């Protein structure tokens, strides 16, 4: 065995590994030591190795004998996490009662601990690097509230990180008053923005059809009533995409639809404006077609 094979073995195991997982298939302890010395591997704590491109947050969590948790784990799982928190600290799970071994007090943190620590009891399988999907979602609900939870949940459902039984288990573990969020969640939301929009409009008793195919226009994000289209653009639509959007809007208008086009900044940072635009449109019955469209 060689340093190269030690690095390869860590990569095969997903980028982080325990010594026991590496030694079993034949990696030598001295190869691990050499790999660390040469900067080819990191050793965030005794008995755990990681590739050098591992995120600083994960290295930090591992160094506490913990795992990334909550929103940090959600990102690691690939869930859409609403980015509305200025606190950029890593959320780290450590065993209940475990005192983190390293508490770096950064002057920028004004005396706060270096991580946001979670110490709840695990409810699903723990990987070496992160908490399980159900525990992650429960932590997000407690730590960041229902909107961040709901958007993360729909993103997890879309990516099939949760199957039917996982969803039922999550529902049983969520406090009773929030179970409707699990029932209300869909697995076809195209983006976190869509999830937020649907949840926020639901509060006003406004229901919307999502991902509606309109002949001659294409698939639109939402339709309120029968003719008010709302598009929630995730990225910036520039160049040819921008032109395509205009063509869609014109084609929709020719059919009797009105389009309200929103983007990330508007939905996240200027919701009051978006809300008043939608409520005003609904109050003026712009979502009801005089022509009585039967699409
Ligand atoms: Zn948290
Ligand atoms: Zn920390």
Q: Indicate the low-confidence ranges by residue numbers.
A: none
* Distinct ligands: zinc ion
Q: Strand percentage, roughly?
A: 5-15%
Largest sheet: 4 strands, mixed
Report on this model:
By secondary structure, the protein is of the alpha+beta class. The chain folds into three domains: 3-53, Arc Repressor Mutant, subunit A; 61-184, no CATH class; 192-283, VSR Endonuclease (Endonuclease, Chain A, 3-Layer(aba) Sandwich). Helices cover 43% and strands 15% of the residues. It contains 13 helices and ten strands. The chain has helices spanning 3-12, 19-23, 29-37, 56-63, 70-77, 133-144, 146-158, 164-173, 179-184, 192-202, 239-254, 264-269, 271-283; strands spanning 16-18, 42-45, 48-50, 67-68, 91-93, 116-118, 208-214, 218-224, 228-233, 258-263. The strands form three sheets. Strands 7-8-9-10 form a four-stranded mixed beta sheet, sandwiched between helices. Strand 2 (42-45) and strand 3 (48-50) form a beta hairpin. Helix 5 packs across helix 6 (133-144), helix 6 (133-144) runs antiparallel to helix 7 and helix 6 (133-144) runs parallel beside helix 8. The longest helix has 16 residues, at 239-254. The mean pLDDT is 89.
């Amino acid at each position: 065995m060689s340093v190269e094979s030690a690095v390869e073995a860590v990569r095969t195991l997903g980028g982080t590994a325990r010594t026991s997982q590496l030694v079993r298939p034949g990696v030598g302890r001295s190869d691990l030591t050499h790999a660390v010395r040469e900067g080819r591997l990191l050793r965030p704590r005794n008995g755990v190795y990681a590739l050098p491109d591992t995120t600083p947050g994960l290295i930090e969590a591992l160094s506490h004998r913990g795992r990334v948790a909550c929103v940090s784990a959600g990102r690691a799982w690939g869930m859409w996490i609403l980015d509305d928190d200025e606190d950029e600290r890593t959320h780290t799970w450590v065993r209940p009662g475990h005192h983190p071994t390293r508490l770096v007090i950064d002057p920028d943190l004004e005396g706060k601990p270096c991580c946001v620590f979670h110490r709840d009891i695990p409810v699903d399988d723990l990987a070496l690097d992160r908490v399980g999907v159900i525990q992650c979602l429960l932590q997000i609900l407690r730590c960041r509230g229902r909107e961040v939870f709901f958007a993360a949940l729909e993103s997890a459902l879309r990516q099939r990180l949760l199957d039917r039984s996982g969803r039922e288990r999550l529902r049983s573990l969520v406090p009773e008053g929030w179970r409707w969020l699990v029932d209300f969640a869909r697995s076809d939301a195209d983006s976190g923005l869509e999830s937020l929009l649907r949840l926020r409009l639901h509060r006003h008793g406004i229901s919307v059809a999502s991902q509606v195919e309109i002949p001659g226009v294409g698939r639109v994000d939402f339709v309120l009533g029968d003719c008010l289209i709302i598009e929630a653009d995730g990225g910036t639509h520039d160049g040819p995409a921008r032109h395509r959007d205009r063509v869609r809007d014109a084609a929709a208008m020719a059919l009797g639809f009105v389009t309200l086009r929103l983007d990330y900044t508007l939905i996240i940072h200027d919701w009051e404006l978006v809300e008043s635009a939608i409520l005003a449109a609904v109050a003026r019955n712009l979502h009801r077609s005089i022509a009585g469209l039967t699409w």
